[in-house]
Amino acid sequence: QVQLVESGGGLVQPGGSLRLSCAASGIIFSSDVLGWYRQAPGKQRELVATITIGGIANYADSVKGRFTISRDNAKNTVYLQMNSLKPEDTAVYYCNRKGLSGTNWGQGTQVTVSS
Description:
0% of the residues lie in helices and 54% in strands. It is built from no helices and eleven strands. The chain has strands at residues 3-7, 10-12, 18-25, 33-39, 46-51, 57-59, 67-72, 77-82, 91-99, 102-105, 109-113. Strands 2, 4, 5, 6, 9, 10 and 11 form a seven-stranded mixed sheet that branches.
């Protein structure tokens, strides 16, 4: 059973930066895709970014050029570097694993962008 634990959320001013981390325990397969999703109040959960074990990244248009996803395969950890944060980035951010054996979600970490 894979467990995902996020950290790094918090309160930041517009234009600031945060780095989220997600540590995965259990068996992670080379075909698994790790990623970040977010859910703002009253909205559906949406894709932020995903990354394959080979480092191929995919981003939502709303975060391209501002967010960077990376992955440390040796540590089974995925990161999300968020720069130039905007109030509309405020949401609960969830770590996600998708693979042949199924899908797992973390518990979420709150990111609030406000002055």
